[in-house]
Amino acid sequence: MQTDFINIEPWEHELRDENRTVRTEYRVRKNIAITLSEVGKFEELLSRALEGGVNHVHGIQFRTTELRKHRDHAREMAIQAAKEKATLLAAKLGRQIGPATHIAEYSGGWYSPYSFWGGMGYGGNAMSQVSSQSGEASSGDGTIALGQITVTANVSVSFALQ
After folding, report:
1. pTM value?
2. Distances (CA, A) of 103 to 90, 100, 138
3. Contact 152, 130 (CB under 8 A)
4. How is residue 57 annotated by DSSP?
5. Using CA atoms, how far apart are residues 129 and 30, in angstroms rounded to an integer?
6. pLDDT tens, position by position, for the chain (162 residues)?
């Protein structure tokens, strides 16, 4: 558990009495981040937090401890898909692909000018692949459906034509 964010704001309002004074109060917000390694205990943790006075819960995220493994797998899949797509497209033109001339990975939808002009702008094969990890809570009577954690990789590969 660690403090993630603290915010203190003044809040002014008039009191409805004969003097009509203005009173300043302060609203304090404190966000904490909790890492829970036993997902089956999530509902108990949430219930206890609410009983303890927590009045707002937001940004719950389930993450994997094996992110690197899944991201590497998604990258491999994206590279393979780019090669397959380039091979198919080149074959439709009666050509074959040669060696890769440019490889770039994109994250969060931001492209650097170099990567854009070197790959996407001139015939790059941008591919996105997903590697998922399923998760299940250890207690079967919970109401939280974990689903899957999705890890994506976006790559652009340019190949020479032969």
Report:
1. 0.56
2. 18, 7, 41
3. yes
4. -
5. 37
6. 888 889 999 887 776 666 666 777 888 888 888 888 888 888 888 899 899 988 888 778 778 888 899 999 999 999 999 999 999 999 999 999 999 999 999 875 433 333 333 333 333 444 555 555 554 444 455 677 777 888 888 999 999 999
